[in-house]
Amino acid sequence: MKPRSLLLPCLAVLVLGACQRPPPAPTEQRPEPQATALRDAVNAPLDKAKDVQATVDATAAKQDADIEAATQ
What we know:
The chain contains 2 helices and no strands. By secondary structure, it is mainly α.
C-alpha cells in the first residue's frame, strides 16, 4: 500500500473528527410557562374544593364546641 493512498482517508478522519456541534448556550433563567390558561382551569376546582373543606371544618368545629357546651 502506498503512503499516498492513506493520506486521503487519514485527512478525512481528521476533518470529520474536528466537526462537532457547538455546546448549547446556557440560559440564565427558565422560560415562562405558556400554558397558564390550562393550569388555571385545572387549579380552579381544586382551590374551590379547598375553600369548601375549610368551611366544612370550621362548621364542624363550631358544632362540636356547641355540643360540648350543651353537655356540661
